[in-house]
# Entry
Amino acid sequence: MNLTQKFLLLLLFVLSHHAESSSIVKFLPGFEGPLPFELETGYIGIGEKEEIQLFYYFIKSENNPDEDPLLLWLTGGPGCSSNTGLFLENGPLAFKSEVYNGSVPSLVSTTYSWTKMANIIFLDQPVRTGFSYSRTPLIDKPSDTGEVERIREFLLKWLNKHPTFSSNPFYAAGDSYSGMTVPALVQEISKGNYICCEPPINLQGYVLGNPITHIEEEIKYRVPFSHGMGLISDELYESIRSACKGNYFNVDPSNTKCLKLVEEYHKCIDKLYEYNILLPDCNMTSSDCFLYPYYLLNFWANDESVRDALHIKKGSIGEWVICSRSNAYNNDIKSSVPYHMHNSINGYRSLIYSGDHDLVVPFLATEAWIKSLNYSIIHEWRPWMIKDLIAGYTRTYSNKMTFATVKGGGHTVENKPNESFIMFQRWINGQPL
# Structure
């Protein structure tokens, strides 16, 4: 084989490898006709030998993709697929509300997609989440700090393959457990931008919804939240506060009075859906249940025609699951508050929002750690409006941080997509809420 033939074979290998790593998707099973937006799916190899293959969906902005912000969306868990963000929260497609009949669940366009003003990468991470997989058995289990490094590596490699987006303003975003990784990721990107010979990422800020920040402290706010929402009586609240001294969930066994009161507390709240106390705690297999789209998503993502359309590598994963709870994971960031402080000092913008009916991470807990940063208030607490209706409440701080509640929203604000759309649209455009 001569040198020219060797070169052509190498070129063919590189081109075929690139074709396998990312693909444009124009049609999706369940959606009628061509997609009304530009969708790319693909894998980015992580590590020296690229054993870890992180799967992503990239949707171009429907406005001005060349100049609009680039947003990386990380769903929480850890281990929950970014499909939940894409199809159930802020993406351009949603499941049609109809009873599952055995065929591919139907998809419809949404009016509230954040892709109307931003390019968004929805990333499945850590490895073995969603469609992400590992070519070899994992030596080390994923961790908060390890994921931060891997996600930054993903971004650098993704931008290297998509150089036209290198100058777009970049924002990291997510909700729930992403509150642990996103602030650390912002700090890591910020530090990496000063390392020699690596292209800088045009980092501008971050967005977090109902973020887990320091869970051991945040769970202490569930009882005050329950009292404020009228879920427990004044008498029970005063008694439990006195007996438990703020420690309601890891109670000293010798404190029998506190244990009994905590038992009374759970009798009042255990039949609620803790992710949104306005909703019943129902079986998601019921078409009347608010969670039914999660049920449909499971059928959709496990359909072979869907996997073919998304260009999922054959044999890379078995059954697709929404959240890979069984995966071993090291929660090695105890609190993300120091990362918020560092990011504020470095001048990055942030939007922190809370569905105000979330019992898992109550807005009271989020307010508490924001106040602990000790930044002065620029704009005092006020309602933010959509037309003549109150959509929530907001306050802005001197560290470029905006805090907002979404009235009636739950843990991931998926039941208030129009409100979260308008909130994000105003913030990303630099307008007051």
About this structure: The radius of gyration is 23 Å. The chain has a mean pLDDT of 90.
